[in-house]
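Now read these lines:
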Amino acid sequence: MENIAFRLHGRIHGTGRAPWLVFLHGFLGDGRDWDEIATELKTHFSCLCVDLPGHGASRVERPCAPGEILDALFKLLDECRIDRCGLIGYSMGGRVALRMAVAAPDRINRLVLESASPGIQADADRLARQKADAAWMALMKEGGMEAFLEKWYAQPLFDTLCRNPARREELHQRRMRQDPRQLAMALQSMGAGAWPPAWKDWPSLRMPALLIAGRDDARYAAMAERMAAQNSRAQVWIVSGCGHNVHWEDPASYTAAIQKFLMDT
């Protein structure tokens, strides 16, 4: 195990005696993003909603290496006495969740990946993404959160959030509570270009997997279909009326689908 220079924090919903689910949020979020989902699921499951490095209460002093992040996550599971769990990750959290499943498949009995991929395959494309993320980091640190969020959520990826202004404003206010310098280190540590791709590992995973994407997020809907074609244990759920952030845009349908998947597989 690598020397872990930070400690991850998480929030538990449920008694701790039911089967465990572990939730990993996306960039800019924290474990509270899952409160609606976990509150509904805690009748049948114990839920651990993690703050990933640089988010929420999980503060870091420097960018973190992939191995450090995985070690810290498994250490948190050990502290919570979670030997095996269902693992649910959204976007950036989905990328991390997939690496956890690759690193310790015996500890993950179900895998849910929402708007996520195994990574960027071409070296040149990963380098280009790192440069793009460096520009986002500079905006966060120099321009502040308000300017950053205005530009971040103006990306076409998040167009569907505008369909519900009240929910979009709630999300905005949550993001405003984050520390831009912490987020910049998080993006350097866990951005799409930061970790090597896991496409070669994905087909060999044997736990049941559910791949979720919004129908209006064409890129990740296609990604889910591509991934399912490479792993016979994976099924796809494409959600109408949603974009990239399915669990925020339609939490009721999301919760019902997750529960059905966990109960049926």
The first strand starts at residue 9 and ends at 13.
